[in-house]
Amino acid sequence: MREEGLAPARPVPARGASRTSVKTAAAARAHARAVVEARWNDAGRPAREEDVIDLLLVVSELVTNALRHGGGLAGFEMTPLRDGIRIAVRDHSDTVPAVKGGPGSGPAGHRVGGYGWPLVVRLARDIGVEKRAGGGKTITMFVPIRTVGRPD
């Protein structure tokens, strides 16, 4: 994902993307809920609540990880698509999340922390991590959103 496609200082929607100056995980969750409301619920095709909950968890974990481990949140973008939402989160760290987690795995032992990234890996699809030439990275992923009544 290109840098110019991510969070400017103020909301500037373009080509279906929803950019906002999110600064906290709570603000990211509220924005995600608003995108679902506008794209699915207002169109008379209500989104499955379990998918919305997955989306909110993914958004919360990505933003929290950027704030805690990524040197701060540098960009946040959500793009609603026909069957879900593409998310892009940019931070200031060059450190790529450890490749662990995924279906059937969880954090080792009872250590504090380490649950967020494996959770994201389990709930999202098409995960990409791109280091940025000027420093930092962009993490992109897709979270499926099904409508009520649509089979799995």
Automatic annotation (TrEMBL):
It comes from the Bacteria. Residues 1-21 are annotated as: Disordered. Residues 29-141 form the Histidine kinase/HSP90-like ATPase domain. Pfam families: HATPase_c_2 (PF13581). Transmembrane segments: none annotated. InterPro entries: Anti-sigma-factor_SerPK, HATPase_C_sf, HATPase_dom. Keywords: Kinase, Serine/threonine-protein kinase, Transferase. This is Anti-sigma regulatory factor (Ser/Thr protein kinase).
